[in-house]
Amino acid sequence: MKKKKITILTLFPEMFDGFLTNSIIKRAIAKGIVEVKIVNIRDYTRDKYGRVDTPPIGGGAGLIMKCQPLADAIYANCVPGEFTHRILLSPRGERYTQKRAHELANLKYDIMIVCGHYEGTDERSNNDVDELISMGDYILTGGEIGAMAIADSIIRLLDGAISGESIVDESFENGLLEYPQYTEPYEWDGFKVPDILYSGNHGAIEKWRKKQSLRLTRAYRPDLFAKYKLSKQEKKLLDELDSNETPKWEKDAIDKAQRFIKKDENND
Fold this sequence. Notes:
By secondary structure, this protein is of the alpha/beta class. It folds into 2 domains: 4-165, 3-Layer(aba) Sandwich (Alpha/beta knot), CATH 3.40.1280.10; 187-267, Trp Operon Repressor, Chain A (Orthogonal Bundle), CATH 1.10.1270. It is 39% helix and 16% strand. It contains 10 helices and 9 strands.
């Protein structure tokens, strides 16, 4: 697979120093899976005072990024004869999702992410990009944090960046939130690890995890749950959940594991 190249255009390149040395990002770059190029938009201004922004025509608060430095930065960093998918972070864009992250990761073209700043960019700069993306219904000082989020979400999906198993069960991958995860000790602050996770019965554990995933999504993200198409088995799991009783399959898995433990203790 061709190495993925992600170019990020920004007024504050120093903000990406820590991002590029993040464990997963750093390893993916070292393995040659991805190349991340940070470009300072200021380097392309033709303004004799080095400015990249100006007050808006017609009056108004704040400063607007000028067309010229942004356009020159964009086209100077596109490989001649090759298509680069250019993204501008904008509240006007579609909200970013895990589905879009997969689409961008699978895109055969290089990707460029343009970070807006101040009160936004000149309206005509929208003509220099292929897509507008919004990170959500809130305001950030600039597009740098959003660019990091998009780049990170793409890179971790690239083959070899992390193990495939780590991706499969993550939140949003199958339309649901991820199930609860636990570590030792067994009891902490009065709360215990569910016994089913010690059963060694992988089928029962998987079933329990699916039930918990459904429970959490319904409770915390009803918007996702409303769009999720339940299978017959999943409807049954929800019925079990709503009954507030431990189902037979779960009891059997736990009881069998506990019998094995007692048997081993007696043999000792």
